[in-house]
Structure formats: C-alpha cells, structure tokens
C-alpha cells in the first residue's frame, strides 16, 4: 500500500510502514551537520510532550515558515480553510543541532512559544494532493539573532522578482541545493512511548532538482494521477538526492530546500524515504504573495486591536493521539 504523506502525525507510523528496516533517520543517506552556524535559520518544531514533528525556517525574528500540514490536524478537503491546531501545543527551537530539547544543554539554543499559527487560505488536499502547503508560526517573543540563529535568505518579497530569480535557479542544471532536517526522533509507539526517544542530530542532504516530466514519470509509477499532474501550475518542484539514492523524508516536512544560498521552497510531500524516489517541494512564490498582501496587514490589525485573544485549547494530548490514529486509518491506497 502506498500512503500519501500529507499529515505529520504519520511520522512514526510511516517510518515503520515505508522506510527500510534499520533506517531511522529521515534524511536517508545524508550527513550530519557539524555546526548550526552553517544554517542558523533551521527551526525544530516540537509538539509539547510529544517531540519533534516538523522542520521550519526563520523568516524574521518573529515569523517561522513551515508547511501548512505541520500546523493542522487535517488538511481541508474542500473550499473551507484548514484549521490550525492551538499555538499552545507547539514550541519553536533554534540555534541547536539537536532535536530533543530536554537532552540538550546547548547554550546557543533558543526556545519560543507561538502567539498564533497561520496557514495559507488555499492550503488543502486537492484530489489527495497537498497544495498551498504554507504555514507560519508567529512567535510570542522574537528570536535574538546571532551567528547561531538568523533568518534564511529570501530571493525577494516581491512576487514577480522572486519568480524571475526562482526560474533562473530552477533552469540551472548546476544549481547547488540541499535539504536539512531532523527527521524521525521517536520510535516508540505513536510517539508516546519514551523508549527510543533521543537527541537527533541535524542532517543535510544534497539535492538535485528534476524536471516536471521526470517527476511525473517517477510519481506516475506510484500513482497514475501524477501522470498528468502539472507541478509547475501548482507551484511545486521535485528533487532527488544528488547521488540518486537519498532523499528527505516525511519528518523533514516544513523544512527548507536551499539552492545557491537561498531558500526557494519547503518540504511538502513524497512517497518513500530515500532510494531515488523524488520528493516534492512547495515553492515560495505563493507564500511571498500571501505574506506581503495578507499576512502583514493581518498581523498589524491584531496588534492594534484591543480585543483580548481567547486562549483556545483544542484538546488534551490523549485526544490528539486518538484523532491521529483516526487520520492514520483514513490513509489510502493511492494506486
Ligand atoms: C515588483 O517588482 C516589479 C518589477 O520590478 C514591479 O513592477 C512591481 O511594482 C513590484 N511590486 C510591488 C508590489 O512592489
């Protein structure tokens, strides 16, 4: 059975279902990062009491970019916007190579709570394909920038300029790209078993962008609906590990793909860990448009509003686990 990976809650389950035995890292075939100063924009997003769920990247001291599917329980399947989980459930950690904060005495680590979470209004599961997979954590207090914690480089905040620069990079067959992430942290049952929880070291994988045709062909072998899927029209690009045997994997969702020093997209979905199966990335063109036309004014209006913000708690952790199991149960055969 092939399972489409659109929800971070699958992380543990999928690791068991899909990844080759003994491979417990999500970036399969990658190598360890020696110093977080190589990529000070990397953010580890943890769910309180559960642990690492997704990667993210620092846009500004208060905005963390990640995938929409990292911030919702279930991606909307119709025109209604996807609903985020409660910001209280998450912590955002920067400045460290290690994923589990409780094992970590790293003096450069910075831990922040989110004030609220935002997802792209068109973030949805469109005929079982994740689209507009953009989300933002808006932090209660800003990260302090230094050599260990800093913003990623964005091609432009202007959509047109971004698109032009993006096209140049994507057309360049020599473009140097990589993904980075912590991948799987927990191997216990559905993440609630303490056994096997350990510090995971940030890993990096060199990636090679592939054409839409190649991606259609590769994904089409897994699910025929991809044979006619227009990745470009959906602002998606595909990449494979540059050695053709590694790739990022689901636990790296939300993390950046960096080409020529700039983050051009984020990890959205894929089918298999490693073994030359491509992964799909949501390019940042729609994000830049959403951010500059909607997000900034929304954030500003919230700041100037005197209305108190309700503190919604969606549910207790037990309830999460239950709902997660239900979502796992609706994973489907894509063939
Ligand atoms: C974006 O850049 C283009 C090309 O330089 C320019 O024409 C346009 O006015 C810019 N848009 C905004 C919103 O600044």
Structure characterization notes:
This is Peptidase S1 domain-containing protein. This protein has 335 residues and is of the alpha+beta class. It is built from 5 helices and 15 strands. The radius of gyration is 18 Å and the shape is globular. The strands form 3 sheets. It has a 6-stranded antiparallel β-barrel. A 6-stranded antiparallel beta barrel has the order 2-3-4-9-6-5. A two-stranded antiparallel sheet has the order 7-8. The protein starts with 10 loop residues before the first helix and ends in a 6-residue tail after the last helix. Bound molecules: 2-acetamido-2-deoxy-beta-D-glucopyranose (NAG).
Task: Provide a concise account of the structure shown.
This is Peptidase S1 domain-containing protein. By secondary structure, this protein is an alpha+beta fold.
Topology, element by element:
Blueprint: H1 11-17, E1 31-32, E2 42-47, E3 51-60, E4 63-66, E5 90-94, E6 110-119, E7 124-126, E8 129-131, E9 135-139, H2 159-171, E10 177-181, E11 203-210, H3 212-222, E12 236-241, E13 256-259, E14 262-270, E15 279-283, H4 285-304, H5 317-329
Helix pairs in contact: 2-4
The protein binds 2-acetamido-2-deoxy-beta-D-glucopyranose.
2-acetamido-2-deoxy-beta-D-glucopyranose binds next to helix 2.
Domain Peptidase S1: 27-296
Organism: Apolygus lucorum (Small green plant bug)
Keywords: Disulfide bond, Signal
């Amino acid at each position: 059975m092939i399972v489409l990976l659109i929800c971070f809650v699958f992380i543990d389950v999928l690791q068991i279902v899909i990844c080759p035995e003994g491979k417990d890292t999500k970036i399969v075939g990658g190598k360890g990062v020696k110093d977080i100063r190589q990529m000070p924009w990397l953010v580890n997003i943890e769910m309180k009491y559960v642990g690492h769920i997704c990667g993210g990247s620092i846009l500004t001291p208060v905005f963390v970019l990640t995938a929409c599917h990292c911030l919702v329980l279930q991606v909307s399947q119709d025109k209604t916007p996807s609903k985020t989980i409660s910001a209280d459930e998450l912590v955002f950690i920067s400045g460290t190579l290690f994923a589990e904060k409780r094992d970590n005495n790293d003096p450069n680590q910075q831990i922040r709570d989110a004030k609220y979470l935002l997802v792209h209004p068109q973030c949805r599961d469109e005929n079982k394909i994740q689209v507009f997979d953009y989300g933002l954590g808006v932090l209660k207090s800003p990260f302090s920038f230094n050599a260990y914690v800093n913003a990623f480089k964005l091609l432009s905040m202007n959509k047109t300029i971004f698109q032009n620069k993006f096209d140049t990079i994507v057309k360049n067959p020599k473009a140097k790209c990589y993904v980075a992430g912590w991948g799987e942290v927990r191997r216990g049952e559905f993440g609630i078993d303490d056994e096997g929880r350990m510090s995971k070291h940030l890993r990096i994988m060199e990636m090679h962008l592939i054409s839409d045709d190649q991606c259609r062909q590769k994904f089409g072998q897994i699910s025929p609906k991809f044979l006619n899927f227009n990745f470009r029209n959906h602002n998606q690009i595909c990449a494979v590990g540059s050695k053709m045997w590694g790739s990022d994997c689901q636990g790296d969702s939300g993390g950046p793909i960096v080409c020529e020093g700039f983050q051009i997209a984020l990890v959205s979905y894929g089918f298999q860990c490693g073994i030359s199966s491509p992964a799909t990335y949501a390019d940042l063109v729609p994000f830049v448009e959403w951010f500059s036309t909607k997000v900034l004014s929304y954030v500003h209006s919230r700041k100037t509003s005197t209305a108190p913000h309700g503190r919604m708690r969606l549910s207790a952790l037990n309830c999460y686990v239950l709902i997660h199991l239900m979502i796992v149960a609706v994973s489907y055969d894509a063939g």
